[in-house]
Amino acid sequence: MLWATGVFLIGGSAFITAIEWSNPATLGPLSAPEKLLAGAISGSLTHAVRADSTKEDALRQLGVHEFDRAVVAIGTDLEAGILTASLLISFGIENVWAKAISEAHGHILAQLGVHHVVYPEHDMGQRVAHLVRGRMLDYIEFEDDFAMVKTNPPADIIGLPLSHSTVRSRFGITVVAIKRPGEGFTYATAETVVAADDTIIVAGRTRATERFSELQ
Q: Which of 29, 55, 87, 111 is the most exposed place for a label (fewest CB within 10 A)?
């Protein structure tokens, strides 16, 4: 069926409305709030259905087993989320993402064989903590101690080409993009001259990006 070329989304109104898929569908667990949710968002999706995602027969009738990607974004009902993820794994779906609300919850999902366990509350908490304690405008942390930061340029690199400011050797970071007022982001080059009212994106080791964003 056509759905098999898309992504099957289960629960999670914020997740569903925040992204645009070429051919998505959503399936919510059988409860009154989720029934209302499916009806409310059906206009923005290719297909929206209401069913019990913990029941194998219901999922098979919807052709979920024919998908190669699925997302379980059930938030508060841990049992429903775990059972749903287990069924998706048993179907042999190649890529399953599932939301975890705690480390223990994530450990269970990983043991089931979920390919991608995400911790949205934890990740957002880490991000906000970095934003409120410094001059960062935005912050993204990756695994292996690597991060990208959007920030304002410090005084000692303003008016200089990046090649002359030696930011990499002095601060251990790389300026990867720059945004002029009223313009969009563009790639930074060695010849890029940074102005005081520019916004820059830097990448590097987590602590190095934090220290750089604290410079005045």
A: 111
Residue that is written with structure tokens 């297909």 in the block: 47
- Sequence-separated contacts (24+) of 18-27 with Cβ below 8 Å: 21/46, 25/49, 25/62, 27/51, 27/53, 27/59, 27/62, 27/64
Asked if 125 contacts 141 with a C-beta cutoff of 8 angstroms, the reply is no
Question: Quick one: pLDDT at residue 13?
Answer: 55
DSSP structural state of residue 108: H
Query: Strand, coil or helix: what is 138?
Result: strand
Among the residues of the chain, which ranges form H helices?
13-18, 32-41, 56-61, 78-90, 103-112, 120-132, 162-165, 167-171, 206-213
Residues with Cβ < 8 Å from 27, sequence gap 6 or more?
8, 9, 10, 11, 38, 49, 50, 51, 53, 59, 62, 64
DSSP code of 183?
A: S
pLDDT band at 39 (very low <50, low <70, confident <90, very high): very low
> In Å, how far are 149, 190, 191 from 208, measured between CA atoms?
10, 20, 23
Degrees, nearest 5: CA angle 39-40-45 = 80
Nearest-CA neighbor of 134 among 213, 208, 203, 199? 213
Q: Please, which pLDDT band fits residue 46 given cuts at 50, 70 and 90?
A: low
